[in-house]
Amino acid sequence: MESTSEKSSFELSFKTLSKEINDMLISIEKNPVETGNFQNILQKINQLQELLNDSKTYLPAYNMKKNSDEIKELTKCYEQLHEKLQPKKKFTFGKQPTTSAVKAKVEDKFEPIKESKVFKADCGFKNRSNENHLILEEDETFMKDVALDELINCIVLICGTPSTVRATSLTMVNVYVCAKTSIYIENCKECTFICGSQQLRIHDTVDTKFYMYVTSSAIMENSKKLQFAPISFNTSLILKKAFEMADFDLSKNNWKIVNDFDWLSSDPSPNWCEIPEQERKQPYEDNMLLYLFPKLLNKEGTIFSFP
């Protein structure tokens, strides 16, 4: 009886909030001067996702998939309307490292990712290989949308708190990032993400590890051989600062909640697993610290705390 009552309460809350979001989108479309409501709509979509995540213990898999698809459709409508009424500025690359240890490369113009026409990025990296210092600094990423596309054997550090991050077609790449809202990962393999966000979406990705923090849950689709563990700040001082900026509650990490939309059984999904504690080897970011913050090192090489 308790699960039936919870399900009924969820359905009413979900339907009410979904209708509210839809009405707000219609209102903005009819009256474009109300574009200031875009941030409110995004917050309500996040609330809707959290509501769905909290219902996982009693909601059937079919209903989870159905309601998740509805959230995807609302998100798509939001992004399309946002792009129509408030188009992004032209994409610009992040700063290139200029030390002798890193070879400068000629920057090509960024081409939007074909698979995601709605998403328009403010900054990021595309078509790079064998680079250990692909870095975006705080002033470049604050509340921006970041895209990483077609990177091979690289280390990427995104400082500060971008709004969203989209990583597409990465191979053997380590990514350090803390996004204020969502991280979307597609067509990646043999990568490691040291990341934090409200939402994490994973599509068409294989043999990839996640040391993560998430306030809602991770959602995966058409992916396999994924491994998850909680993020550790013992090896990630730069991200620790970003987490403080994002005001995340580190005591509420839902890294164990992974929804696999290709596995609707109540049995554990064969497509992902937790990384055993003895095998957790989160990559260090020491080389990034040395590159970005040489003044934080004293003569003995000890890293001072952030100001």
Automatic annotation (TrEMBL):
- Kindly report the protein's main subcellular placement as a broad class: cytoplasm
Query: Could you tell me the Gene Ontology terms of the biological process aspect for this record?
Result: post-chaperonin tubulin folding pathway; tubulin complex assembly
Question: Boundaries of each C-CAP/cofactor C-like domain copy?
Answer: 112-263
| Superkingdom classification of source | Eukaryota
A Pfam family (short name) is: TBCC_N
Name the GO cellular-component terms: cytoplasm
**Entry keywords, A to Z:** Acetylation, Cytoplasm
Identify the InterPro entries for this entry.
C-CAP_CF_C-like, CAP/MinC_C, TBCC, TBCC_N, TBCC_N_sf, Tubulin-bd_cofactor_C_dom
Q: Which family does it belong to?
A: Belongs to the TBCC family.
What is the protein name for this chain? Answer: Tubulin-specific chaperone C
Which species does the entry assign this protein to? Aphis craccivora (Cowpea aphid)
